[in-house]
Amino acid sequence: MKAIHLLLFSQVLVLMIKICAQITSIIVFGDSSVDPGNNNYVATVAKSNFQPYGCDFYDKRPTGRFSNGRIATDFISEALGIRNIIPAYLDPHYNIVDFAKGVSFASAGTGYDNFTSSILSVIPLWKELVYYKEYQNRLRVHFGAENANKILSEALYLISIGTNDFLENYYAFPFRSTVYIVEDYENYLLGIAKNFIIDLYDLGARKISIGGLPPMGCLPLERNENYLSGKKCIQSYNRVAQDFNVKLQQLVRRLTRELGGVQLVYSDIYNILFDIIMNPQSFGFEVGERGCCATGSYEMSYMCNKLNPFTCSIANKYVFWDSMHPSEKTNFLVAEHTLKNTLAVFV
After folding, report:
1. Residues 297-315: pLDDT tens digits?
2. Which of 323, 325, 327, 337 is catalytic?
């Protein structure tokens, strides 16, 4: 296990040598893909602050990250020479000085759609923005307006959200699907994404990356629905993700033209994850179709617990940690891909 960590760390060091960072802070919005533990302080069942979550984190500590170790934003921060983890804004163990170098407002289970966040009683995206405004005020009180504004304008803003809107909302409950055909629901979400980016811009953000949807039909939880067909990926879900991503890229190009001085990029998560899932051995994995925790087919959060006898012994041999979330090694590979192919424009 330690050898795997050393390998990951050495790879990060290689990235750090190659990148001369101009970014001194990372500010994160989104869902469980980038939540480092905000849900620990929310009255929700969408939690992961217990073992075996965090079994490969520092001191084997479960932090609320939905992974066996670190998540992609942690690796991005370390590679840029900022810090080795991005803290959760609601974590009382950190203060505004800590948050000046990086902070995440993300909440596992949330989405663009307010109804999505209400399903598991997590932080809606609009509330993440409220916390961000509060954070801005705290920065200005502590550092002064000029220094705070410099931190905010030079920070890199990362957004990763949208999967729950489809898998935990549109396809799971009849409310949105009876009102919208899926193409119209995509457009509804894109309208929210557009307004959120404009709000960030109006609040001073100038370096923004927004991630697309993953191949959500290939997540173990969804493949489990195709039990009679050998647990193949649900292609209809993947097509929706691809269609949404094309529209999101179009939105990014349009806003880049309209918002003066913004550096706005689209981060492609779909293709790197699809390649890893379809060809796990090529990336050093042994298992790509199910997760490590429990049976790896349907368990996550409280169903993924230390009492389950089926959890694997070496999580980073698996593409997925639980039935929906990547392992630490996969998170590193996604971060590496994003740094090289998207975020390099910022440094």
Report:
1. 999 999 999 988 999 999 9
2. 325
pTM of the model: 0.94
pLDDT given at position 19: 47
CATH code of the region 22-215+235-268+326-346:
3.40.50.1110
pLDDT tens-digit profile of 222-255?
Answer: 998 877 676 799 999 999 999 999 999 999 999 9
From the list 322, 323, 327, 337, the catalytic residue is 322
Distance CA 11, CA 15 (A): 7
Helix (H, G, I), strand (E, B) or coil at 97: helix
User: How far is 241 from 235, CA to CA, in rounded Å?
Assistant: 10
Among 112, 126, 90, 106, which Cα is nearest to 29's?
Answer: 106
337 is catalytic: no
Please tell me which residue in 32, 67, 104, 267 is annotated as part of the active site: 32
Is 91 a catalytic site residue?
no
- What is the per-residue burial (b if ≥16 Cβ within 10 Å, else e) of 207-221? bbbbbbbbbbbbbbb
Angle at which helix 72-79 crosses helix 328-341, to 10 degrees, equals 50
5 is catalytic: no
Q: Where are the domains of the chain?
A: 22-215+235-268+326-346
CB of 289 within 8 A of CB of 274?
Answer: no
Question: What CA–CA distance (Å, rounded) separates 84 from 42?
Answer: 25
State the distance between the two ends of the chain, measured CA to CA, in whole angstroms: 32
